[in-house]
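User: Show me a protein chain along with its predicted structure.
Assistant: Here is one chain, sequence first, then structure tokens.
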Amino acid sequence: MRYRFWNASILILLFFPISASLVQATEADALAISANIQATHLPFGTVLNPIYNSATGNQIVGYTRCGDSALWTGAYLAAEAFRYNVTQSPDALNNVKGALAGLKALADVTGDNRLARCMVNADSPYAAGIESEEAANTIHQNPPWIWVDNTSRDQLVGAFFGLGVAFDMVNDQTVKNGVSALATRLLGFVAGNLWSPNDDISDTFLLRPEELQMMLQVTQHVNPANTIAAPLILLPVNTGVLVDVQSNDSYFKFNLDFMTFYNLLRLQDNTGNRGAYQTVRNYTAGQQNAFFDIVDRGLNGANAARDAETMALLNEWLQRSRRDVPVNLAGLIPICGSQTCQPAPMVLRPPDDFQWQESPFQVTGGGTGLIETAGIDYILPYWMARYYGVAAPLSVQSGAAPNAAVTPSSIAALYGSTLASALAGTTLDAGVQPPPLSLGGVTLMITDAAGVESGAPLMYVSPAQINFVVPPGVATGTATFTVLNGSAAPLTATAAIQAVAPTLFSMSGDGKGVAAASAFSAPAANPSLESPVSVFECSSSGCVSTPIVLSAGAPVVLSFYGTGIRNRSSLANVSLTINAINVPVQYAGPQPTFEGLDQVNVVLPLTLQGSGEVNVVLTVDGQLANVVTINVN
């Protein structure tokens, strides 16, 4: 089967409408999430998730996840503490103080320094629903509050994670004093009550020595004068984690492990603690988890591939629904037994209130779309990434879809502010091939890992975004991107250059939904009589897929457009599934009309007849591209 390169007029219709509308993890997203948490997720001072009147409605009719409020409030405290350290924002400091006050209130309301799971104003219209949901954890009255007991170790781990981070990230004496006092109170209760969060020996921290050591170290760090001593006999620090890594069951245990070891290794980095951490890290390292990745950055230093993955996963997080929508991956991606064969693409995974505690191999999950997650799973790793230099105000990604790695001869996008200061809010589209090296007074220089500098052809320029082509021959490794726009100082960013980083264009411009693709059919009896086949249709409201009709007498050749594909090791290492059916790839390489544009050609098998709207999953040299869709009649 031969393949076709479509003419420039068709590709202009496909490509240029989407050239300036990509999704990129930015500070603006993090700030918007923080504002929403303040507005809707802290009805009683600690983190809860609102329940809406319908899957598309905005009227709050209740709140849920009260039982984990202490844990997520601690995580939120950590997120805002990192934000404050990076930005020195007064708003971030206020949020830190508010989250700390919420945790303190959970200790105050119990009357004996134990940490409540959550607390609710008894007069609230939401109180009855929360009481019903949390009845198994025991409800106590302390007017005007009710509070939920039976606190688990998880809640203390989350609280101490936030306390340890806030003490070190926030240079404010009021915050430091508050952290010191609260940590001492909480550990004092645990030490005096069977080393348990709720005076129950079956839930004792003696069974999780790494968590107990973390709390001891944090308290000693924030209050050196405290007199709480460790138990005389402690199990080896790796006792719990050796059990954890036996399976992916109860995946949230790994999230608790990373929260624990982040503070423990920062404060007590010895052979035993590091060995226990490495056991967990080795088990989860390939499971595509942005929070775990950024904790590892904090504990083990820079790693270009891991750090690029962190940003790619955060970019993909932004494409997800914030509601608990139902998800079933069966038939969408390969399934092995009761789980996915490999970590599912982040954009497809079943939802959770903290996505990084959800197994990446889970096939089904979610609810009815009524519950909104807080978004702490974005702002916490994002601000940690900013603190550790993984994310920057100026950032680079693929030009087709969120992927923080780019390749030689690929289309890429750079995001920031005042990138083209002379344009004063306007935009410029080069509109020619090959693109020029200067546009609107802007040039972009790339210095690769070998120290070689080259200019990047510019396709599109605006104050907030530059689309460009990575020059051929750029060495793999970390490259520096320098924007020269006539301002006093150049603007710089770094990004990973890889040989392959496949991404596919979509008609929505964000790398998801209807594929940017073209197709033709040809009668088997006379292949020269080709006819175009519609793949999508667009209007002022957007683009929708057009059902592709398959027939035995006229095979349909479908071409997907992407970038970061052409440097693949071999065609045999390029695979594509449609509706989980493997479709042989006829061609995967450059599209010659547009610089940096790649094309993947397949012949649609008749087994796809009647499939409807289906997912397209491309893998190149073992790397998954973003998922797009087509419609097959």
